[in-house]
Write a sequence for this structure.
């Protein structure tokens, strides 16, 4: 009777929770490298073999893209500008595009960086609003952006060529 | 003449990258939506909506806007920082358990939930799943500084790869 009760409880827990915790492992080598190369690091966005983040060093915060297969950052010429502050970012799954929201001269702008041409471009928001948080899909052709309009938050979807 | 041609080409390239914008589907009741996350294939969108005053993750089809059921994510609010795998099989989100923040990954295919306790013991702030869900990056706070912890999930969940993609080895990734 007692065995039946324990089995029933276990089955019930399993059915309700369906949980597991084993099997996770910290990626220590890359993790140590990330910690060594920045004083502070936030806003992670993962691609297939890429990690984009805002890395702070000597008081300056920069957008950084790390190739996880080698653990080293790749050049992002022109994405970091002295007079702007990035507040949100997202890398495409293939690592080729980075969408970001930045504040510059009291304006909040939605930008797209394309690595193949090293070009940072402003994307218009229609109808106008203030962007906050971004997400790119795998190939970087679809962008979701949280936009403030008249005191409420919307999510716009932007299809990119 | 050459200058005019260059100016026209530059204008076309800028215009060509502006894209077409639409409002994300929000169902019958137009609620506020925050923290968007697209699946790798772009078919699904996760957002945080206000549900009776509690920030709650919601999953929708991009086409048509149909809301998809989430088995394990109707409680443990507030939810924040949703992240989807390639086909949207896995949805990771930061949830609340007692006094602690916790990452929960819902496997929509098997119906299982995978709560993650970080090996460091720190509370998660923001998460991002790799498209194939083999790794997750988690932002935590450590002695007043932000840091990102990378966790290998390959011993916990199956990968969620694009349809038809073959398996690769780390050495192949470098090519």
């Amino acid at each position: 009777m007692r065995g039946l009760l324990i089995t029933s409880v276990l089955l019930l827990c399993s059915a309700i929770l369906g949980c597991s915790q084993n099997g996770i492992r910290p990626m220590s080598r890359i993790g140590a490298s990330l910690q060594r190369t920045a004083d502070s690091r936030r806003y992670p966005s993962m691609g297939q073999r890429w990690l984009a983040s805002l890395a702070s060093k000597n008081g300056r915060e920069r957008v950084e893209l790390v190739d996880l297969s080698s653990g080293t950052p790749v050049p992002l010429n022109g994405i970091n500008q002295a007079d702007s502050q990035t507040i949100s970012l997202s890398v495409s799954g293939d690592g080729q595009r980075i969408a970001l929201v930045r504040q510059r001269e009291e304006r909040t702008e939605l930008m797209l960086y394309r690595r193949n041409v090293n070009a940072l471009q402003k994307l218009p928001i229609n109808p106008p609003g203030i962007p906050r948080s971004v997400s790119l899909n795998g190939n970087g052709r679809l962008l979701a952006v949280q936009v403030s309009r008249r005191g409420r938050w919307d999510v716009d979807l932007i299809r990119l060529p | 003449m050459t200058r005019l041609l260059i100016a026209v080409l530059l204008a076309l390239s800028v215009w060509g990258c502006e894209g077409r914008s639409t409002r994300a589907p929000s169902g019958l009741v137009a609620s506020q939506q925050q923290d968007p996350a697209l699946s790798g294939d772009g078919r699904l969108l996760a957002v945080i909506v206000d549900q009776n005053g509690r920030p709650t993750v919601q999953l929708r089809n991009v086409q048509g806007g149909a809301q998809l059921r989430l088995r394990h994510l109707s409680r443990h609010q507030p939810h924040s920082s949703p992240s989807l795998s390639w086909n949207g099989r896995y949805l990771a989100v930061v949830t609340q358990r007692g006094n602690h923040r916790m990452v929960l990954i819902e496997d929509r295919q098997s119906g299982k939930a995978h709560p993650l306790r970080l090996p460091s013991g720190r509370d998660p702030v923001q998460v991002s799943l790799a498209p194939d869900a083999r790794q997750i990056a988690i932002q935590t706070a450590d002695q007043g500084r932000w840091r990102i912890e990378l966790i290998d999930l390959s011993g916990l969940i199956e990968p969620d790869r694009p349809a038809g993609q073959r398996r690769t080895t780390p050495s192949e990734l470098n090519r």
In short: The domain at 25-159 of chain A is CATH 2.120.10.30 (Neuraminidase). Chain A touches chain B through 64 residues (CB under 8 Å). Chain A is about 15% helix and 50% strand. The longest strand of chain A covers residues 50-57.
